Amino acid sequence: MKEVSNHRSHWKTIRIILAALIGGFLLSFLGFGLLWSGIPWHTQLIMILPFLLLSYGILRWSNGAMGLCAFIGIGAAPLGLLIMQFRDTNGSHLMTILIVTGWLIGICAGCYWGKLSQKSSVNSSKDVVSF
Known about the structure:
The protein is mostly helical and 131 residues long.
């Protein structure tokens, strides 16, 4: 019985990793499409929110495994590196680097938010038990 639950645990981890990789790639593809369509860069910084929500969801689904949030960044890396090669109207790479850095900030913020929410839920459950 113990082998079956351990086997299921490995498959759950593999599904979480695949979801993080695919989610990171799809969100970066969406960001690439927004950049390609000519949306202003400050509007593209709204892409922080989907990355934040994805990393929060992955962290909560994986029961607090912080390392699995890194797979979101790995999934977004190929198109993120490609986006950083583009130049803005002034010939600078600064805005595209800012957009990709915003994605990374969103991933880190989502992981931090997930950790905070887990700590608060553990503390509230301790309060209920001690009551």
